[in-house]
Amino acid sequence: MKSTRSKKADQIMEWTQVTVTTQSESVEAVSYILNDLGAAGVKIDDAKDFAKLKPGEYGAHGEIIDPKDIPHIATGAAVTAYYPQTVFVPEIIPTIEQRVAQLKEFGLDPGSGAVTSKAVSDENWTTAWKKYYHPVRVTSSLTVVPSWEEYQPKQPNEQLIYLDPGMAFGTGTHPTTRLMLQALEMVVRGDETVLDVGTGSGVLSIAAKLLGVSKVYAFDVDDVAVQSAVENLKLNPVASDIHIRPNDLLTGVTQMADLIVANILAEIIVPLIPQAYERLNTGGHFLCSGIIADKVALILNKLQNQGFRVEETLKIGDWYGIIAYKPFSDE
Prior knowledge:
Helices cover 29% and strands 29% of the residues. By secondary structure, the protein is an alpha/beta fold. The protein has two domains: 7-129, Alpha-Beta Plaits (2-Layer Sandwich); 164-325, Vaccinia Virus protein VP39 (Rossmann fold, 3-Layer(aba) Sandwich). A seven-stranded mixed β-sheet has the order 12-11-10-13-14-16-15, sandwiched between helices. A hairpin with a 4-residue loop joins strand 7 (136-137) and strand 8 (142-146). Helix 6 (175-187) runs parallel beside helix 7 (203-211) and helix 9 runs parallel beside helix 10. The chain is globular. The N and C termini lie far apart (50 Å).
């Protein structure tokens, strides 16, 4: 299994584990907060993930196990972050609590928002998430497979995305990511140039290549996310030519594209919309997700005011994704 940690980080044997108790709809926002405050990695325990599982080969040696017998959170979700000794965790916990509570202002339910912490060894951190992740079919043709699992496709058209979920920012199982993967399947025709904004784990970039796009340029404002994505790209030979670097949305990017994807919070999509319109070729598509129900009208309005035509609105639970395109002048 690959890791994105530096040699300096590998020498640190004690970490502080910080866990935020929340709701499924807020896991990506909480993950962003924890990473923004210096976390070296996150894992997500979500009751909804286990609700989808059926008895199958979930044991360490391929044995058949009922998901009910796998230790997991019963309701809601918990996001756990790991901080090295260089971060004084007691100092940032009040900030975590405050920012999690403020998610209500953005239409998200943070649940109790309770924050707990404890010291853990490096070895425990390295393996903590493995028991929670298994191959998951996320669309009609795409299956996300943890990097340590051996998995054989069940159908001829099934394609595999290998990820290291322990260091990932988006594992493919959360509704917002699934919406974008479904949208990619609907839109990609082949040979497109793609800009992946807020790439996180790199899952959308990898999926785009598997679906037949020609070039992918991926960006994330978080250096840790970029390194996470780089490691995941290495796990997927099809992704070897993806260009990836740190960047704030599309600021300063001059590359034109046929397709732009963004799985980020609605408040961050708003300033991206004019940038996406400028960088899209005529007839190109803009796919965005991370939009809670209360923010759908806002994003639709911003898209239409910019000149986009909304082609499709997708929904999973309380989350929405939007497929928009840049029309030709005679439309």
